[in-house]
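question for whoever is on the cluster today: can someone run the full assembly for these? two chains, 958 residues total. i dont have access anymore since they changed the login thing
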Amino acid sequence: MKLEQATSPTSVPDRPSGHRYRFVVTWHAALAVFFVVAFIGAITGPGADLVGPFRHILVGLSAFGMIANIFVVAPLHRHRDMGRTVSIMVNYLTIVVSAAVLLSRVGVFEGFDELATRFEGAIYWLLVPFVGWLWMLFSDRIGQPHLRRGGTWMVRGGAVVFIFAMGIIDGVVAIAGELVDVRSLVLVALIAGAAYAMRVMWGARARNDYGTTSWRQEQIEGLLFLSPNVLGFLFFFAGPLVFSLFISFWDWDALGDKSFVGFDNYFDLFRVDIAFMESSTAPASEALKTNYAEAFRFNLFGQNILISAIDRAFWQSLRNIVIFLAVAVPASVIPGLVVANLLNSKLPGMKFFRAVLFIPSIAGVIGISLIWRQLFNASVGWLNYLLTVFLPGDYEIRWLTDQSTALFAIAIVFAWMTFGFNSVLFVAGLQGIPVGLYEAARLDGASSWQQFRYITLPMLKPTTFFVVAITTINSIQMFEIVFVLMTPPEGPGNSTLTPVLYLYQQGFQNFSQGYASAVSWVLFGFIFCITLVQFKRNKSNGTEAMA
Amino acid sequence: MSRRTSPPRTRKRKVSAALTYAVLIGFSVIVLFPFVVAFSTSLKAPADVYNYPPTLIPRAPATVEVTGFDEPAPLLDLEIDGETVEVALVEDGVSAGVYAPVATPDDESTYLLLDDDDFVGSGERMAVLVNGREREREIGTATYEDESIEVVRVRSTTAARFVVPDDPTVEYFGLPSDGEPVKTTSLRTENFGEVLELQRLDRALTNSILVTLLVVFGQVFTSVLGGYAFARLRFKGRDQIFMMYLGSIMIPFVVLIVPLHQLMVSMGWINGIVSLIVPFIFSAYGTFLMRQFFLSIPRSLEEAALIDGASRWTILWRIMVPLSRPPIAALSAFAFLYAWNSFLWPVLTISLGNEENRVLTLALQVLGGRAGDNPHLVLAGVMIAIVPPVLAFIAAQRHFVEGVAAQGMKG
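^ ran it for u. tokens below:
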């Protein structure tokens, strides 16, 4: 990395380096011309064919490059520090973007598939560095640092051998062959020029000549250190997020045709109609408006009420998730709280239990769901067998295929999977309660139950809120368990259709991606409300404790 | 405290400790039981999977080596004169005869199954009912249980020959279904090899390893850089960007799947391994974690190096990172679990039929659907998928649990 030798404030030799700065100035002038051409191309010419967001990105980038390069020339020429800063940034961005485009052009990204094939072939060689790594860990653990060196060499040597075994060398040669192409060579030239210009400007001499303050240097370094993160954040998070909100106002099938529909996606999700029926068994068709389908019907104060909705499935998914929350969240939080109180005792072996109870939350939801599918088996499954053994009667519950038990079965799996994780959160909360409170209570003769009821529970309120919020947020997003456990995933009679599953079906099976985005924002709305409530409660709790 | 001097208190304490352990053991059993079932099923033979009641110990019909026979013979429990004898079924389909005692020729319950060699015909014949019709059959004597009895040969049949394994000269004749197969514990470890061949699960396994390795390294790298910038360097907009990062942790991934999928489509990354790696090497959470830790390292450690002329880059990798093993271990563990167990994203970008680029979770889902009738194989695959995260968790347990607990404290 070039940063290394550059920052040291060595003495500056007298040899004039004006020709280097002249190169940089010329370079930026050339870049400015290049970006003008690119900008025009992006708007009119070949850029118009680009798919997806890339046309907009190209327009934005070339406009930015054009303006920045034009404006950097003058201050650079007059040896202003501002010019140096902007020059470094522009060259850095030029390198990053050109490198990304170049990598994509020569097929490095598709090359990951090839890499996977070679990786499979060479996988056993990976054992060498892995063993070396274990060796290093072991020598650290037993406190013998001089043994560590053997492990270090094994890791390094093993890594080299592994790279050769994968055939990276001929892969690189193959990729280098792809470079011989006019556009690729232009990109290489862009990278090389920008790298050289950046190096000139970065150097200690340039810093001296441009009168760079350490504050400004820190500014550049901060942005450079942050840049991999921020670029990734913009490209893979912020950009898609904005696009998601944008597309939720369109009717879009992901292929091209889109039409603006305003808030209609959201309205369609929520539009319901309430009708009063004469009897509870009357056919719904009498009361339904066109496009509406029966969602629920129930009897309230002697009135037979029929609620119909345009998007019945969405309402069913909401109903399912509400029932699921009502069952699964207490089933996960309460055992978590109980176990945490036990784990918090000072008895030996608690670390072991804590680790055991944590295993379900790390073992992977797909594997766990496949295991539970066996346990739920109606005829030979363990669950029915254990019920038959411990309770009177024969049990042949069709857990997963019966409309009335499917959601309950999912809740069992979810609670089983998450309560250990919650107990670890609770233990952290318990350890924050001052011991003095308990001592004082004991002196006053409070029983264990009283201590729990009047000290632990109130003091644990913030943690409890946090745990309930996290568990609720996780269960609202439930997808994997139903996807693996249920065939079809929505279960008998849509009984395990969850909102995320519905989003998946709308967006990736029906390809109504605008509508699916609206669903995702509605979900986000729910989650955001929970977070907000949690946050507010905590804040008020915090101020109470301060007062 | 008068802990030692007052016996009732001590007893109470002991009772409460015993109760604590009892409840914790109970919960541990609940947690571990499904894994134990999965492990035992993964070692079962296909025939053993659908037995009811289910058993935890994989069992298979036992066989025994009998001197004089090449193949190991199945071991059965045979009831002889009210006693159960363990015998080996050495030969099936031996031609034998059904004989009736001369005294009760038409009572099928008294029929005997005998080797034809044990029968010495007398040449005389008598009438017996065979399938409801009267037939003439030969009378003779036969040795049955060391006694000579007078019998009539009703019809011929095939039978199985059993011997006592320790003494092959002791022979019995009977039908194979007369004996109850003896079962012994038998671990069918071939299941693991078999399932790796199925559905290219081996490729899915190496793909998962590759993706996980790259995501872990990438996340640690970008998070260390970003965390250092947030913790130590002052620049315009730093605090605003940091607030945005914090806010982004709150946004659920499902909001991103539609546009991110679209981005993958337009970049041509769909169905490619790269779609599982590159978008996930940037982590707001990891950056936050590293920043918090870097803030706790005293500045004086760096300042000396800065004065000596070391660059920020050198300081970061030579001074800060070696001090930061706990958060890096925690971050690696989180990234590992996330990458290894992720399902929603791979199911969107990699088509389920793409055997070359599937990761383990996808392959397991396909396997669960296609080999649903072979739970022993599916669960062998599940065990393969579960072992690495559990090992990683055991190795990094302390950092990991502390990381989670810190999350709780923050809330």
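summary bc i know u wont read the tokens: The mean pLDDT of chain A is 84. Chain A touches chain B through 126 residues (CB under 8 Å).
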